[in-house]
Amino acid sequence: MTKVTKTAAQWREELDAETYRVTREHGTERAYSHEGFPKEPGIFTCACCGAALFTQETKYESHCGWPAFYAPKSDAPIGETRDTTHGMVRTEVHCDDCGAHLGHVFDDGPQPTGQRYCINGVSIRFHPSDNTAKA
């Protein structure tokens, strides 16, 4: 996969203000601002570059206020970075294809992984299974 590189001006032109703030400036959307993602089979892709990141099968209700998954797709371009902002030590997750900030991963999720990928809703897009998403 070729890395997606764009200037800040290009990203600002393509993304709405909230998606830009969260994905390009490492922001966080307000909790419970993205309830109601579809329940049908499908794939969640990066809002910036379209890379396939998560499947509906790994999504679960964590009651944390953000979409949660217990694992990314097996071939997802998910990267991790140590995040020490806000007086905490966390693991940030980002799209390796374009550098978009997605959210954080925690070790308090369900089995089989025990992980909770807590993802900002504005950083992902849902595509039902009958649509094609960039793999």
TrEMBL record:
The keyword Manganese does not apply. Keywords: Metal-binding, Oxidoreductase, Zinc. It is an enzyme of class 1 (oxidoreductase). It catalyses: L-methionyl-[protein] + [thioredoxin]-disulfide + H2O = L-methionyl-(R)-S-oxide-[protein] + [thioredoxin]-dithiol. One of its GO terms (molecular function) is peptide-methionine (R)-S-oxide reductase activity. SUPFAM superfamilies: Mss4-like (SSF51316). Its EC number is 1.8.4.12. GO terms for biological process: protein repair; response to oxidative stress. Belongs to the MsrB Met sulfoxide reductase family. This is peptide-methionine (R)-S-oxide reductase. It comes from Celeribacter marinus.
